[in-house]
Amino acid sequence: MFVKLILILLIPTVWYGVTVFAAPETASKIDSIIWIPGFSDKIRGSKENFDNVITDIPNLNEFKSWALDLKETVIDGVATTKDTIDTVRWWAQKVEETYNQAVDTYDSTKDALDEANRKITEFQWLLNGWASASGSTQIEQ
Asked: What is the pTM of this model?
């Protein structure tokens, strides 16, 4: 019983499907009779769109062209990235040079101040020695 019910639904559906592509005028008349005009036209249009999508496979030249375009895009991106890295590297070197110059200036200033402090200490020592030799009191620091 179940098989008969399936066959009663399946046979007319398959017959209608074949009619849509084999006899489009008959399928259009059937559409009008069952109150769905244009249904077979939509099925045929969907099949044509599906066929176009499936059969629209690029040929070897189109694929090569796409591959070359992709290659050029990647090369341009790499070149831009390299230029950016080179610019950043240049600025980093300038910052390092400026830092090294600041360290050198600090060191030379520190050395000069240490030397000046040493000279002042020697001078005070000489003045104290002179003052004690002449009998004066020691010079306060």
From this structure: 0.41
